[in-house]
Amino acid sequence: MLPPELISALSGPAGVLNLAELPLIQPVDRRHDTERTFNPVRVRFPREHEFFEDGDVHRQLYLKGILQSIREVEERTKVSEFRCQTTGCAQFFDTLESYEHHYNTLHRNVCSICKRSFPSARLLDIHILEWHDTFFQLMAEKENMYQCLVEGCLKKFKTSQERKDHLIKIHLYPSDFRFDKPKKNKGKAKQVSGQLSMELGEESAVESMEICLSSVNESSRNVNAANSPGPSSLYSKCRVPRTICFGHGSVRGFKHPRKTK
Amino acid sequence: MWRVRKQGYKTAPGLEELKRQRRIQESVLRKARREQHLISKRLLLDEATAKEPLDDLESYALSEEQVLQLILDLRHGSTEKIKSLKTLRRSLQREDVQLMFVKAEGSIQLLVGLFTSSVTELQQESIRCFHELSQSYNSAVSQSFLAATSYLITYLSGSCPEFTESCLYVLGNLIVEGEAIRNQLLLQGLIPALALCTQSPNMNVLEAVGYTLSQLLASKEAPEKIVPAVLEAKLIEGILHHIQFESEDRIRVAVEFAWSLHYIISSQVINRLLISQDLMPKLIQLLSNISALVLKSTPPDLELLICPLVRCVANLLPDVSTTGNNFQIHDGRLLAALFVFIEQYHKDHQFLLAECLWAISNLTVEEPVIASAVLHYNMVPVLMSFLLTSPEIAAMVLTILCNLAYLGPVYCEHLKQNNILQCVISLLGSTDVHVTLRCLDIMIGLFKHCPDLAVDFLNNYGLKILEPYKNEIQFHDQVQIIRNLCSMQVSYLFRYPFEVKSLDLGEFVYKPVNPDYCKTTARSAWTLPF
Known about the structure:
The complex is a heterodimer of chains A (261) and B (530). Chain A is mainly alpha-helical and 261 residues long. Helices cover 37% and strands 5% of the residues of chain A. Chain B is mostly helical and 530 residues long. Helices cover 70% and strands 1% of the residues of chain B. In chain B, α19 runs parallel beside α21 (350-364), α21 (350-364) runs parallel beside α24 (391-405) and α28 (451-460) packs across α30 (476-495). The relative contact order of chain B is 0.04. Chains A and B meet through α1, α2, α3, α4 and α8 of A and β1, α1, α2, α7 and α9 of B. Chain B: One of its GO terms (molecular function) is nuclear import signal receptor activity. Chain B: This is Transmembrane and coiled-coil domains 6.
């Protein structure tokens, strides 16, 4: 139907086909245009215009899944049950996908000091600053340092309580938002040994999640903790970008619990 | 985790059954659209449920006591928790169970607790429960969600793609439940969180974020509230990035973002800004790529991508001319792509034909470059072949022909070559007022510029065929002008009978004004490669 030169313009690498440069423009003549009943204008249609009805209905049929033929069902290959290798974790999995889910939600954004796990990197960043950064504590006395938890909100507050009020009032957050627990027992975690701090960490994580972990075999956890590879002292000083992860149970924070030994 | 789209029919249905189902759905949707609450929710199913027959819903019925017992088990039980949650999730497909569940005290908080827990299976199963609940159109169910939205949004910035995807679909389904819910979602930072999600490399997450965004932008308060927020969050760049598709497996993602863009542009609040950022050349490039693909093969669902993009182009055209960017649309690939879509889709998807014609009609308004290309590439017969498709389509085609006719004698000569007068007169009797009006408008243009057509008309049909319209108020002016034009052209005929017979029409009409100019125009009109 289309002339070959147009088809080649569409599929070829030539790019723009400037019609204004082609010798095909016909002269316009409106001398007899005194009486006109037709007014050539470009028409806009608002989204709710009935002109769009058929197309919109087609779109909604697609959303409702009526248009689609049966798509392939992804079979999850079962593997023999294995345990998460992360220190202190005792969950078992029989598909790689569920393990991946577990790893991504629980072991990606983990505080290295208190082992709390957070749903997002932003919440972890805020946690590390507020809980384990001494400089932050000093600064907080002088200026507003408590960042709002909401993505895109740049407000900062003098205390975590002020922030909490802001979250409830402005962002309609629930008053018991479970990723905004106030800091308790200031500084105590630092004095305990590495092993103990991990256990404490686990407890506090449970407290923050308000869900009990299924009972963990104590001895297997200890074995696991002893076997877990500690980062070399050379690298533990550098801050590793969060997208890079060295093996299982990579955690972030100002120091690794192993170092406190 | 769960990557199956809702099929509606999980046992293989016959083609007739499919068609019947579709017709029923279509009429429901049409009614909903007229009543201005056309909303849809998307349901993803896991493979286990997808294999279960649809009418098994009966077996998931639960009594109120059973629901309360399940909640109790979930709160205090330990080992059987996951089993109880699975039972609950299956039963939540039923509307009555949904209501019983949300009415039970603390049930949503319990679900939030499981959702944020550290046990993977519980987390996965609880987001599926939320997903089932989000399918409800009952306001009591959607109200109960208010307690969970801050967590759903928080997990959008998480590191687990499947979890993010699930949260996005739950939110996307919730969005249509009213302005109050949307307000809360906006206050809780939904838009910046969506902007983060658009950077995900995961295709399923991208499709889900496109879906959620399009649901948000389709809401009625979008022009005042949502479009500005989307602009502020720099989401437009993300949208423009994702409507580009390099391979066929990106079509599903592109579809969602293209609809988002359509809702933005049809809101008509930032169109001038978008044009100044060269949106038009980008859209033309994209449509040209898609049409090149269409020429080779037609992947399924591609019309769902083309439709919103054509709407974007057509709706931007009025602002293109007022911002002095008309040169941008002189790229012939746009016109060519529109004709490729028309050729490919006019049978199966008539709405696409209508919308492409609308774009062409906007392109040809006062635009001799495009209009000349329509003549040069012999597109008039193609357009005219759709005159009998439907009144709406005929009106659209006639509008394009009017745009051409009103550019002057050369254009009218070309229309005359395609026997336009005969077509127009046969359409005069249409029941559609717009079609009749446009027919009369074209006759005015033609008779003004081609006196021999006026003479033909008088000889072959006569003014009597205009009798039925002369007393109707909406056609009165047109009929009067046509009568005047005819008598004027006949008076010329009496003055210069010889020259009329010689058929040298350009010379005949315009000699008194500018003989040289008319000679050239007449000649070029005849030497066109028709």
